[in-house]
Structures are given as C-alpha cells and as structure tokens.
Amino acid sequence: MTKFARDEFDRVPQNPSRQGVHRVVTTASRPVLWPVLVLGAVALVVGLAAFLFLPKPAPSALDGKNASQQNVTQESQAPSPSAKTTPSTSPSASPSATPTPTPTPTPTPSTAAVDKASPVAVYNGAGVAGLAARVSTTVQNDGWVPSEVGNWQGAPQQTSVIFYNGAAQEGNAEALGQLLGITEIRESADYTVPLVVVLGPGYN
Asked: Which of 34, 106, 159, 195 could form an SS bridge with 120, CB 3.0 to 4.6 Å?
C-alpha cells in the first residue's frame, strides 16, 4: 500500500470505456510497376519478331550502293573535260602540206647495170698449173666474155686482184669479184682489156 492519500485518479470505474488517443496504422503506398513491365515485354516481343521475320537487304544491293557512291566520289574528283589541254598543231604538221619530191639519185658506176659483154682476161699468178684455165671457164659459164688466158708476167702479187679500165667498168669488176670471191678491186689504165683477173698465191 502506498502512503499517499487516494485522489480522483485512484477511482477506477466499474465498466470503463476505452479512452485515449488511437492512431491509424496505414501501409506505405507502393508505386504501380506492372504497366511498365507489360510495355517493356511487348516492346521486346515486337523487336524480336522484326529481327526474325522482316526481310534483310541483299548484300549485292549494298555493294551496288557502295559502288555507286564510290563512282560518284571518283567522278567528283576527276578533272572536267574542259580542263584538258588540247595539243597545239603547227602549220607545218598539217596533212594538207605538199610533200617535197625527193630527187632521184643518179646511178654511180658501182650501182650501174652489169655488162657481161665486157671482155675478161684471166692470168695465173699463183703458180698452180691449170688455174687460169679453170677460172676462165667459170667466168664464161656465168655469161661473161673470156679474153686472154695465161700466166701472169707482171709484178708479183701478194693476193688475187681484179683490175678495171675506166669508171664505167667498176660495177662489172665488183660483180666479177663476187663471182670469184676476190675482194681486191683496183682501177688501172695500164691494160687494154676492160677487166683483168690476176690470181694470186693461195687462190684455189
């Protein structure tokens, strides 16, 4: 027991009614997320369907597009036809210019026609018996007119030689030298015969 005197607060009613302050407990409101989830799922399904079922562009079409773009780029970089320089032509290069006639060269004795009617004398200076007669036969068979045939009585010759009398006989002497294989050709007025063949040592 307490030692204090009873007061009004110590009187407890027989049928007390509930008195006091009551607080209403409310749950915190949560944001509604299901519409966002539904929209995300729908967008995912649509994107997947578009990736799987929509037609893809052909590689050739892409290549053609890239090639056309590259051609356009090259054409834009290429110089215009107006920028090209045209070669200048001088009046002397005109096709209408009249060509200057080339003078016809006069034939020299070496290029004149061969006259095989000129007499040919053959002399043996090689010391080989019958050599002059054999060579004279070769000359005659080629169409030349043989003249004298014998042994050489002049100065000794180191090689075979053909003497010709006059510039008109130079072409005949060269043709005769080609026939006999003699390259030494000399002009001489010491002989009355137009062509004189002297067979030197070593000729066979």
From this structure: 195
